[in-house]
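Practice problem 4.
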């Protein structure tokens, strides 16, 4: 009897593996993201009786993105990709050759997949080589910089591509000063009214090859502001109301960056899932004060130059929603049981950090002179 029970248990395990295997293979479909259609390939495999998945967005370079979780419960398929704050849920067809589902990365989009065969599967491009990093001891400047007024419908951005080319859109001179000197608007005084209202698009190429560090990038922006906008200023010290980032007693819950520790920090998304990559706490504080909070933010964690990866989800209040570019009418968490907590609670629950209102002496930049940009 004992042998029979053991054999039956073995059959049950084998049956479970076979049931999971019918989803394995290559699946593909197109995701309509605005005016663009992105071809998505998902490769599903079975490893130690556990389903695993790797996703490729082949029209965006084709780099592999591993799923942090993949499950099949009956005909329901669920996949989570924490690295990009994305998720997929779908239903497998009766014949096992199609999945009807939805991709969600802040907003739901339909993504229907079909099982690919060797004859129908899309070719996945070779991932691009890692970008060349600028020498740490280099002191670059922008060799060429084009500055143009922004179009009315432009969206704010500051980006550096793998070749080291800087592009900004819809940036005021005040935005550029905040970025170059790690300041909150309350830390900038003086200057004409157009400092905040005139918006510019900038394309600039450094005279040294490679992707600059954040320190090198800010130094180049400081030089650009002096050369093209004739910016001069002096510094002062002032006690202001600030937000301080500290560590809770139980310690932080965030992970240190595993790869590319010398690259630029990355910030993407918003309250539904702010993705922070390769950032120090000081850089995270700088992003918060520039885009989300109404006061300067100071780092008091003592983490120095350590870089972290994490995702933060919160429900913004009206002021945070406007600054973050989200809908000002975003419902408070009390109105929606599934909504994430407010920013201050999210800091403690998700990051093991605390965001506290206090007063502290901070640097203030007093503008003595600034002009509209010189000709290209």
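Answer key:
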């Amino acid at each position: 009897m004992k042998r029979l029970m053991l054999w039956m248990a073995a059959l049950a395990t084998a049956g479970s593996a076979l049931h999971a295997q019918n989803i394995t293979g290559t699946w593909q479909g197109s995701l309509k993201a605005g005016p663009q259609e992105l071809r998505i390939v998902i490769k599903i495999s079975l490893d130690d009786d556990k389903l695993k998945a790797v996703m490729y967005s082949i029209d965006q370079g084709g780099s592999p993105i591993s799923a942090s979780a993949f499950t099949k419960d009956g005909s329901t398929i669920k996949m989570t990709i924490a690295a990009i704050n994305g998720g997929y849920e779908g239903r497998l067809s009766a014949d096992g050759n199609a999945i009807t589902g939805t991709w969600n990365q802040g907003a739901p989009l339909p993504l229907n997949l079909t099982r690919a065969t060797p004859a129908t599967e899309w070719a996945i491009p070779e991932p691009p080589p890692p970008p060349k990093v600028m020498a740490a001891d280099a002191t670059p400047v922008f060799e060429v910089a084009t500055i143009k007024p922004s179009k009315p419908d432009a969206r704010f951005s500051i980006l550096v591509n793998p070749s080291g080319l800087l592009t900004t859109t819809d940036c005021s001179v005040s935005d550029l000063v905040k970025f170059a000197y790690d300041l909150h608007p309350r830390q900038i005084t003086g200057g004409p009214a157009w400092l905040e209202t005139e918006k510019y698009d900038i394309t600039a190429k450094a005279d040294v090859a490679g992707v600059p560090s954040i320190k090198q990038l800010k130094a180049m922006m400081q030089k650009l502001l002096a050369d093209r906008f004739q910016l001069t200023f002096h510094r002062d010290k002032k006690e202001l109301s600030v937000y301080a980032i500290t560590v809770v007693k139980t310690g932080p819950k965030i992970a240190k960056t595993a790869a590319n520790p010398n690259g630029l920090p990355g910030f993407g998304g918003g309250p539904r899932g702010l993705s922070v990559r390769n950032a120090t706490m000081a850089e995270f504080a700088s992003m918060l004060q520039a885009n989300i909070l109404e006061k300067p933010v100071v780092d008091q964690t003592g983490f120095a130059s350590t870089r972290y990866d994490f995702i933060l989800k919160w429900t913004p209040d009206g002021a945070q929603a406007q600054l973050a570019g989200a809908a000002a009418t975003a419902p408070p968490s009390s109105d929606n049981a599934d909504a994430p907590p407010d920013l201050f609670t999210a800091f403690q629950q998700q990051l093991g950090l605390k965001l506290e209102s206090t007063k502290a002496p901070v640097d203030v930049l007093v503008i003595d002179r600034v002009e509209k940009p010189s000709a290209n």
